[in-house]
Amino acid sequence: MKTIKYFLIFLLSITSFIGFSQSIEGVWQTYDDETGELKSDVKIYKKDGKLYGKVIKLHVVEDLNVVATCQYCTDYRKDKPIVGMLVMSGLKQSGSEWEGDGALLDPENGKTYDGEVWLINDNKLAVRGYIGWFFRTQYWKKK
Questions:
Q1: Which ranges carry the DUF2147 domain (predicted)?
Q2: Structural domains in the chain, sorted by start
Q3: pLDDT averaged over the chain?
């Protein structure tokens, strides 16, 4: 009887721990690596077990009448508005990280990168893009 009681307590504690786990989904703010200036808001969401991120707002557009486009993109995103654009696509979960080949887009240069994303804490996200052995990591803040 004691064993069942302890097992139930253990089961309830695990259930409550899982309920309070951190979520990578939500709106994240991106920042310029050099100046620290707020650049954009990206909504991260899961679809069919994969992770996606879409730009929902740009903060660096100087002229509000100008629509910022992906001038250097070479795929279907060429000259399309950056707001609404997928900049993170199809990352698969691997433990506590999400990763994928060609999964991250930098709209400033049109290049795609192999990527890896993980939570540092509830309010800080690490986003790392790779080209071969070289990588760059940005840190995004939860909005």
A1: 26-142
A2: 23-142 (2.40.128.520)
A3: 85
